[in-house]
Structures
1.
Amino acid sequence: MRIATYTALLLIYAILSPCAYTAVKNIQDEADFTEAVLKKPGIKMVVFSTGWCGYCKKLDPLIRKISDGYSDKLAFYVVDGDKLYATAKKYKVNGYPTAVFIEDGIEKGRMIGYHEEQQIIDIINKQLK
């Protein structure tokens, strides 16, 4: 009985947890980046960050929160700049966090550094025009 209750609680948590329904996808490697970002049509927001970057850690929950409201208009991806250094270098990422807006394989804009929620929304809306 206890195992069933525990399992049910974990399931409820997974459903209600913000991380469970986020529209942000983590890019694992170069092949994943090519397939998800470069080959798929539409505009994407690719956030380059690192595990040691304090502003990246502060920006991440904001991006995940905002992404839920744009999931039908914009695809969101996170790239670890340490793991995919060549990709970060290709997109001239000189500091973290940096978000690059990419459409059909072409950079359309970028957001450098940490921004508050409304600023991020304004930047996204500008990119979607």
2.
Amino acid sequence: MTARSAPEDKTNFIQADLSTAGGTTKVINEILNHFHGTDIIVHNVGGSSAPSGGFITVTDELWQQAINENLFPALQLNRVRNRWWHNSNDLTECGNNSMTIKLPPIIQKYVDASNKHDVKSILSCVSDDAVVRDEGKTLHGEKAIDGWIMKTIEKYKFQFKPVSIKDEAAEVVVAMEVSGTFDGSPVTLDYRFAVRTIRSYLSQLISEQI
């Protein structure tokens, strides 16, 4: 929780002025230091001190103040958060012969464990309530996902090679060249990961044919 004035209960509270660049940067830095990331930002800072009389009475200074209070904090919070996401030293480089792709650590861990066919390590990457969508089926929870992992390893003997990465809304989309004991190998699939950054788990994985 963030505000200009501190409440009596200061548990998980950051005192900062979100209408300034310094205030929003302070909030993000405090979150990263304590939690190492964010899942959701709820921004409800806002208000107006414009006088009565309609838009004709609103000066440039009042317009700027309103923008700083209502729009700028949300923009700046997401800008700083995204900058951290893309440039953090915690990102892992996944290399091949011609290019280097930076993957978030939990996704790199998932790829490495998958290529080793290490069921226990793969399962440790996903949350207890994770959802997997693959080959037209939706799987919920650890037991179902455990069975899916073992079945696909046994059936396809797959190997992953990340090709590209991009952010789409709340997902990280990794295009992967997938090879194995199946017709048409290798193929390139989009893997859509939803990452819970605070505890670093995958909460959703969707594979799609490109």
3.
Amino acid sequence: MNKNNRLKNKSVFHKIIDITDNQGETQLNSPQLNNLSTVIVDKFVRLEGIKDFAITKPYLNSKYIEYYKYWLNSGFNSSMQWMEKNADERGNLQIRFPWARSVIVFADNYYVDKSRNENTLKISRYAWGDDYHKVLLKKIKRILENLKQYDKTIEGKAYVDTGPILEKCFAIESGLGWMGKNSQIIIPNVGSYVFLGVLILNKEFEEYGNPIESRCGDCTKCVDNCPTGAIVENYTIDCNKCISYFSIEKKDDFTPQEEKWLRDWLYGCDMCLESCPWNKKWAKTSGEISYFNRIEMLERSVNEWKDLTEEEFGKLFQKNVFKRLKYQRFRRNLLANIKNIENK
């Protein structure tokens, strides 16, 4: 949490409203608030167990949009043509939501301290539990409903990696974290094993966060440890070379090079995250067990994956992001993994 903001606003907050009654239950009879305090949000974020948040305006500096367009024009989005739509709206939320006055950016830790079994196929850590889109979205929606109890005029819209929003850029602007050279947001004292979500509100806040200084320095471990060279320049990912992209997003068959690049990654890739010194220092097991309640699947042998039927696939990955891969692409990835293992 932004401790400085919380401490600074504490006295202001208690002049506005007492957060609990004598029994510790939230009071719902507060006055309408012209400007919201970060302390109010902090209370509800804590109730939901979300790791951190920060707040910024609903529009970005033009440099972010310019860079995003450069990235698109360079073809680094590969076949993800949907990313080319609404480029300007992604950085100025008032285009789509004229009522927007603020954006709260949330970061929820999904890390679990579990070593991988090197004799099994690899699945990205973010897919070790229930679908994060739904888990985090429910939390943010509950925060919105609680805010509405304080001020009936509050309106908002929540997104978790689904709306046309440059979430990472808003996270940077809010001071939630800085961008690592692998384009992942690094949250102080948390790391980059986080899911991002946003809540767009029609209310202004007493104050907003500011970008914080990058602490990556001269470190290039994430760049050096990417086996495909997908980090083509600092902060720039070429999805055409990214294991996460072609193991998840690519719809067509693999090229021979992509097949080799896949190695033993069945879904996604964590190599740049695993090499980050800040993750090694800060990453701790999340308090949200929904993010890693399916880790038993990591122990499946190659033969067990090979024998998995389409019906079993659907049941195993019910309410899990892996399911969006669909069975045929799962088989595509699996056969490439097996081929790579046999050719070692």
4.
Amino acid sequence: MKRIRPAALLAAALCLLLAACAKKTPPVDPPPAPDPGPSEPAPAPPESGELTLGVLNLEFVTEGRDIDALRLLQKELPGALIDALSAQECDVSAVNVTFGTSADATVQAIAGGDVSVGFVPSATFFDHERALRAAAVESGRGPDQDASVAVVPAGDDVLGGERFTAALCAALGTVREALVHYTGEEGGGRFTADDDLLENLRRYHDTGSLVLLTRSVTADGGRELTLAGLGTRLPGGAWGMTHIEVRDGETTVQTIEMSESQQDDPYGGILGGETFCPALEELFALRDVNFDGRADLDVYGWLPASNTVPHFFWLWDAAEGRFVYAFSLQGPVVDEAAQELRAEYRAGPREYRTDHYRFVDGVLTLVETETETV
């Protein structure tokens, strides 16, 4: 039997130890990085003190516009904006006015950083609202018309801030003659930072309905209610109101549909559930017509070809806390002194009538009719 010497055993053990050390040690995962917590928001632009803006590029859309008006804007607006910005302690090295071939092209130029402020139709702004921010909106036009909106990049708190917006609106006010020619509307060309106007344009863009007229009234218990008449502009320039929202603060507490007037009405109610009124201010009024000390709702119906205008009345119901449709009168006159309502209308080719009404036990009652033949 062959004997193994101790020295050989020691050598073998040493070889095994060296082989183990030669094996690659597996990597150890580094400890997780500490949680930095929520990111800090970008600092807001200072409300006072000098603000440096560098070079500003303003772009207007050329399609269908007056070339002379564009040239006038290019000539007059830079100096006006520099002066207005200086009044707001905003330093700008230069203002350039350029022209885009289309509204979408201007939006792309803003996204690419080539344009600071673009003037685009409101419909274009709403279609690209995630990438844009409204700095100012054109006022003085019909609420259904596609007013221009001065837009800046969505994340730009300097160009979208109050100081720049105030300077921009002031500068645009000094070149309004050129803007009127640019917009093509005699009442246009005025720009303002009016959130309510922008929301009304958004409503029309989303629903096709506008807030045409608002009126306020103090109801029972001192509640301040706002009535907002909604509808659209009709062909020929008249206004069609389809419903009225009664709001208590931000909450709509009642929606009055014009179609409610079609119930048991001798005129058939408001035709098609939509009024036809030539003037916005005449769409509806709030006045006490049943002489109970509370304001009621008087709605203009439509303009007949050869007669007086029918009006439709919702009376305030104190018990229910809402307006309830009651009656209609043609050519109504509210006589507070006599505590009566009169309806004046044409009854025939040569015959005119005046009906006298009074409220008897809360019910509108015809008490007398006068007839005149001419």
